[in-house]
Design goal:
With about 325 residues, the protein is an alpha/beta fold.
């Protein structure tokens, strides 16, 4: 009897697992090979007075672009230079004080070898990320990072797979080490990502998201309950901020307070804002980080938070939905 054929999807799953295991094993081998050269490379890049020029050809070039982008966004000025374009004029961007990071599995990539003399003439230090320690590039570089792998993940051991994963991971290791060496902070990271969700979480303050002016639901302590409800309805925040005779915040009245009041059976006609408001409400300040404001609201399970100035006067209101919609 012939054995049952392995379903195609099971074979594909097995192939995927084997690919990931091969690449993970290669990374562990590279981690074991990390030595003083890595620290030397980090120190070399950190000491640059100019920028780091990252270059590679083909698939290595694509990895080089990612490494340059990661470095630039984490405090190390870096740009990608296509080696072919470099030989046709882009070498003009290379200046004394710059550094170079060259990526090549073989270490004999012709396009990189051709431009090496220009970097040497300008005394630009070269860090080489190579898979062949006896190659031309390895021999002529100032620092060499060994990213050699025993086998590519493809069945013919040809397509750059494991080797490019190794380069990518080594680039991440460089970036992380440089961040630590430079004491790179989340706040600086946010400066380079002003349009991203992370940038908003780290830089946005309450004053940038709070409602102010005519949108602010304000009532006096002696306002009737009907006036309070009308103000809440008109301003659509589900709350009214109650102020005293000095225009300072003295309480808040919310939709939840109204529901509980109606269920209590208490006569409503003669009630004023001061009778129904929650006294000494929590509030925030305009210079508070929006992320911290969101955490306060979630901790205390409130959906509206007054914003007061230094004197205690309400100048704004923040709604939970507005913060959530910003991706905070």
């Amino acid at each position: 009897m012939q054995p049952a054929a392995v379903p195609e999807h099971r074979a594909l799953q097995a192939l995927a697992k084997e690919t990931l295991r091969l690449e993970a094993h290669a990374l562990l081998q590279i981690a074991d090979r990390i030595d003083a050269s890595f620290a030397k490379a980090v120190q070399c890049i950190a000491s640059l007075k100019g920028k780091l020029i990252v270059s590679g050809m083909g698939k290595s070039g694509l990895i080089a672009q990612k490494i340059a982008a990661t470095l630039a966004s984490t405090g190390t000025p870096a740009v990608f230079m296509h080696p072919s374009e470099a030989a046709h004029g882009d070498l003009g961007m290379v200046q004394q004080g710059d550094g170079a990071l060259f990526l090549s599995k073989s270490g004999i990539t012709e396009e990189l070898i051709v431009i090496l003399p220009v970097f040497k003439k300008l005394s630009v230090p070269i860090v080489a990320m190579v898979g062949n320690l006896r190659s031309t590039l390895a021999m002529r570089a100032d620092v060499v990072l060994d990213v050699s792998v025993s086998k590519e993940a493809d069945p013919f051991d040809l397509a750059p797979t494991t080797s490019t994963t190794a380069m990518l991971a080594m680039g991440d290791a460089l970036a992380v080490a440089l961040m630590r060496l430079k004491n790179f902070s989340p706040e600086r990271f946010a400066q380079f990502h002003p349009s991203g969700a992370l940038g908003r979480r780290l830089t946005m303050r309450v004053e940038e998201v709070m409602a102010t002016g005519d949108r602010l639901p304000l009532v006096a302590e002696n306002a009737s309950l009907r006036e309070v409800i009308l103000e809440m309805t008109a301003k659509r925040f589900g709350a009214a901020l109650v102020v005293n005779s000095k225009q300072k915040l003295s309480g808040i009245f919310t939709d939840g307070d109204l529901r509980r009041l109606m269920l209590s059976g208490v006569p409503l006609d003669a009630l004023k804002a001061s009778d129904v408001m929650s006294r000494n409400p929590k509030f925030t300040t305009p210079d508070t980080m929006a992320k911290a404001c969101l955490e306060t609201m979630e901790q205390h399970r409130i959906t509206q938070l007054p914003v007061c100035d230094a004197s205690g006067k309400p100048i704004g209101i923040v709604h939970l939905h507005d913060l959530v919609s910003l991706g905070l």
